[in-house]
Amino acid sequence: MRDDRAAQAARDENTVLRLTQRATGGRLLVLRVVIVLVLLMAAQVYDGSLHALSHWFILGLYAAGSVWFGRAERGDGRHAEGFAWAGTALNAGLAIYVIVEHMLAGAADTGGGADAVSQLPAFLLLLQTALSMRVWHTALFAGTVAFAWGAAILAGLVDPDGFLGPHVDLAEQAPGLLTFLAAGVVVVDGIARLRHAAGEAVRLEHERAQLARFVPDGVAAELARDGDLGTARRRHACLLALDIRGFSRLSRDHPPETMVRALLAVRALAHTAVTEHDGIVDKYVGDAVLAEFVVGGPVAQARGALASARAIRTRLAALNRDRAATGDFPLRVVVALHAGDLLVGVFDDGLRAEYTVLGPAMNTLARLETRAKAADLDIAASEDFLRLLGPTLPDGARAEPVAEEGDVHPALFAIADAA
Questions:
Q1: Are 366 and 240 a contacting pair, CB within 8 Å?
Q2: S-S: 247 plus which of 287, 372, 386, 396, CB 3.0-4.6 Å?
Q3: Sequence-distant contacts of 48-51: CB under 8 A, at least 24 apart
Q4: Radius of gyration of the chain (CA)
Q5: pTM score > 0.85 for this model?
Q6: d(CA 61, CA 154)
């Protein structure tokens, strides 16, 4: 199961990359054009020096290489990641070359404009790498350029008579390096946060879509926020079980078609009442309906379950009036309410997937339903359920203790409407 989650996370990562590449492809192309223009500007400041020739050569190499790698890394082939790393290395090499070449050319004599032009490609290439949404690529680019830049400054300071020494001006280079370091840290952190947020959005959408096959969309979105739907997660829930009274006896006295219509009518009103109050109809078993309320806090769950049970009673009364008008027999149901901790999840064995709840509370609910039938109740609730609602039930409902033989737990209460 852990391997499945890791594989899904990897697929989500690839999805994020593909989506961002499509969204930022135009911006990356514009950035490449801007960088080439900046290099053209830098080539003009060297006043015919020997470095200008190498500058034009590197400019042409970068233009050709960036287009090639940019196209290759956007593909879905097995070498796409390798091309992406090669493109990052090309960007880092270009940024380092422009900075060091500026030092060698003695561009300090050309004024602050040349300094800015020589350092600008490093910042633009940092942004270009970050737009790929590849965190490690961006971190490697920033680290490599900063290290090489610092090493060049240090080499000039340690050996003033060396090939870099006469051209290194600490007052010129140190602010640029420190600014680049700060920008690199901010950009890498920002991309990491954005990548995580995008991955979370993809994960939530994937899990919401998985849950939406079993539960209402709003409930699916709430459950998906917790993640790990492929494994059982402990959650508090309020439970509702409905059973049609005397269904077996009625089935012996009436045609199957009549019983099917009656069964579907009860299922429909139960489903409507449950989903209207953010509940989930888990399953239908014969003439029984099992529903859970698992979103929100325990009090909200209990309020939703109680409101659903009372709505079922009201709608069943209306249904029986319509059935009486057409000469059909009346229907009676028993609804049992309980609360407790459950294991909740979507389980997929590769052949069939289902939303499932497990736990001792389910067994207690079945016993409560049997006790409610024996006491001839239409709505019954356990003391565990009522404890969530406090001493006063909402909307004028009231709970009346049920006298039973023996010492049974939890205590059973009948739910009645206000007089």
A1: no
A2: 287
A3: 49/105, 51/101, 51/104, 51/105
A4: 35
A5: no
A6: 28
